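Category: protein sequence paired with discrete backbone structure
Discipline: computational structural biology
Format: plain text, a pair of labelled lines
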Amino acid sequence: MRKFSAVLMCLMLFGSLLAACGGKNNAEVKTNEGAVTNSGGNNATQAEGTTEDITQKKITLKIHYPLPDETTLRAQEDDKIARFQEKYPNVTIVKDDWKYDINEIGVKMASNEAPTFYNTWATEANFLVERGWVADITDLWNNWEYKDEINPVLQNQFIVDGKVFGVTQNGYVTSTVVNKKLLDAKSVTAPALDWTWDDMYNTAKGVADPKKGISGIAPMGKGNEAGWNWTNFLFEAGGDIETNVDGKVTAAFNTEAGVKALDFYKKLRWEANAIPQDWALGWGDAVSSFQQGRTAMVIAGAFDVVQAALNEGGMKPEDVIVYPMPAAEKGGKHYGILGGNYLVVNPNATKDEQEMAFRYITFDYFTDDALKSVEDTIQARKAEGKYYIPTPLEYFSEDSDYATKVKAIYDKYDNVYKYDPNLFTLLEGKPEAQFGTQDFYATMSNVVQESFSKKGTDSKKQLDTAAQYVQENYFDKIEAK
């Protein structure tokens, strides 16, 4: 799961084939967003100064490969491998389904067992760069003909001190997904998209029916995702996770904004009685609760929730509405955490391996083959009686020619989920912090759990204690750059 603020408009019109994670999602938070392609372009040129023909060299790539249960993604990757090796018969492909884990990457690098390239999240850029676990691909990037058509909001997350260290796959802005059918059953009017915390509170309270096991909202309550969910409200209240002045990282969430956000969580729990009785829900638990019609609202990347609700839960598109995160008050910002998925190159790989990895990563970017795959997937979903869910943010810029081509394909089919156009003027993504983010999330998860289990806790005291813990155990150990 990982900055700056940026209004993110119209990008949710652009969808894709692959799921990636996630942010989360984050180290503990799943964020499998769809992507038009998980691969990249055959359009990379050789880095300046290269005199030998890389296509004549025997090169082995250990590639990032989908997990065993991701059968569709594996089939797509196998197809890509075949097409790549047809163009580059000199390359041997070794499949590796290791999924990035912040607790394993150091061992992988030290033992030289990491893939030639691997997946990671927006939060990990500075962490990986500082430890030397990601290659500088600036020269390869600068010689790539499509670099100016990449989505800058996403790509900038892996540009550190002017150097490029990863290639964006896709991204998301954390949203609130609403089950309108549950609202209708309790005669609760759906709020406007430009909603506030009060609107969320009233809606959650009005829909909640504890005797029937239905909650008004299901905030995540265990794992790092509990802290991740809560951080959206910190941002909406005007707060931040940390400050970074001259390389000194300082905890900044134990402020008035933090207190306001934590108090709101407690209102949902103790005043509205709107959260699940068994509130210790992880990412999958919360999404499943929505899919099964046991909660009216869930906070996550929109793609994952809509995908589960329509294609696994049998819900109808008209009953699933994607909202931005609510503003703390009328006229406020609808901040949602901006996350993304990236492919980065192993710095232990040879220069030839790094260049060929870059070619593989970008092999399908901006290609007609990828467009055909999108349309084939939509048609296959239609034949199965299922919906195609576009991902919120794609690797390509919204004003690129490629984006226009993708949208034209979507417009041809009635089984492509359509987001409310008014949503795009309200979404505002705020990137996660670049230092110790997962440690912060884990610490705040404990605070959220205490707030849900003990009535009458002191929010300022809780946050001061958490801030001191994060500062002493994590932030103070960050080396000044």
Q: What stands out?
A: The CA atoms of residues 60 and 92 lie 5 Å apart. Residues 71-87 form the longest helix (17 residues). Residues 1-50 have pLDDT under 50 and may be disordered.
